[in-house]
Amino acid sequence: MPFHGPALLQPIAIDTLLALGLEHNPEAPALQDLERSLSWAQLERDCEALARAYRQLGLKRGDRLASLIPNRVDLIVHYLAGLRSGLVLTPLNYRYMPPEMDHALAVSGAAALVYHDERQADVAASRVAAQLPLGLIRIDDHTGFADLLQATPGTNPCTPEPWPALEATDPCVIYFTSGSTGKPKGVTHSRASFGALLASLVQALELKATEEVLAGSSLAHIASSGLVLAALSAGALAVVASTIDSPSLELLLRRHRPAVLLILPAVLFGLVRDERLRSTDLQSIRLCISGGDKVPHQLQQEFRAAAGFSIDECYGMSEIGFATLAPPNGEIRIGSVGSLCPGFSGSLRDESGREVADGEEGRLWIQAPSIMVEYWENPDATAETIQAGWVDTGDEMRLDGDGYLWFCGRRKQIILHDSSNICPQDVEEALEEHPAVDLAGVIGIQDPVHGENVRAYVTLRPGVAAPPDEELIAFARARVGYKAPEEIRRLEAMPLNVVGKTDRLALRQLAAASLHTP
User: Fold this and answer.
1) What global pTM score does this model have?
2) Residue 498: pLDDT above 90?
3) Using 50, 70 and 90 to split pLDDT, how confident is the model at 479?
4) Phi-psi region for residue 299, left (φ > 0), alpha (ψ -120 to 50) or beta?
5) CATH number of the domain that residue 116 is part of
6) Helix or strand or coil: residue 427?
7) Residues 337, 340, 342, 343: is their CA dihedral positive or negative?
8) How many domains, in total, are found in the chain?
């Protein structure tokens, strides 16, 4: 039988996201990064002015407006302006290189691109950017959108033109997938699905007006951008990490004392291992959210030693938003991704589509008002992922008797060794417990006898003596038994995909290239 999270109380109207903060205290801080701070009133004025400027450039309801902007206050102002004026926000990962930019711009049919000046050379190298119908909009850290606003003076503020009537079914944002299994697809959310996504997050995190949240990952992705917009909708102060590294995060933690922190596991590892981290830096946090792949037990242990409480591991996708989280006032079960968020229903099914028995592993299917409406102009991929109103996540999960979900691996990444399924995250987690290992990435290598053998790529911690391969294999075998790798490869740096996760596709490409190296 399907299982369910709490009922979703009320969706959020995304065209009035700032209403609560404006009503409560318009001069209080609403949005900050390392360099800038905007009050609720200033944020309202800035996003309204930018929305009007976009309209005067010729951008109209339904146009896709792409952005290549690092984590800045300006990026959130841009998001709010686009949502208000009926544009379709199209964030590009700031790590994109020209070929990736070209793919996203072409797929979305973007009308224009807003980009940061430090990416000028890459934008110039883009084949598609120069051909966008409404051109390029350049900003920098010093002037932001000032040049655009001066070039497009607003209408009389006393009698502004009304905004176009917007429908709940109108698309409002296209997030691109990480591309781990093929070319990135454009995950399209409507105003209704995006509003439900934000409402579920506010309710799941129990966000309160006037408290502070710190977004410690890329605002080009649904996790951090969703957290910031959800916080603003709840009247909470949103703090953006302009640079996602330990010194910047430590400074923001000390300056703002946030109640909620969102951060990727790799970055959190660096933070808790940083000798400059003070014992008081994490004291204000009531909820530290992390996810992606499984949060390693080693990270849980090190974070608990530093903070005195456990990481709240989440699970989500661009296609659905945050789907699971341990209730903030409930139990955090180490290794579990928590229970379903408000508004979500789940079903665990086998390969034939039949629901599995209680306690068995199955592929997770999700139903929620926040699921995407489509992959932009890709009906075949949409039909493969959304069936009868349910999203096939492709991820293997197990449900315990208390409604907690346990991540068992991604079906497309499971390694089949001697007829046994091996989850690469389990092996990575075991290796990362070794004191010499910084990061591990695990893939399957075709083998005529065993089907696939387990190969682990590792990077080592600076200043630590390199252990022999046999030691690492034995170390893993003591923890995960038959899942332990048969071979170890060492790398100077672990390849990460555009959302900061271990890029197993890149590792497979590396393995394939080595077959042809004399």
Assistant:
1) 0.84
2) no
3) confident
4) alpha
5) 3.40.50.12780
6) helix
7) positive
8) 2
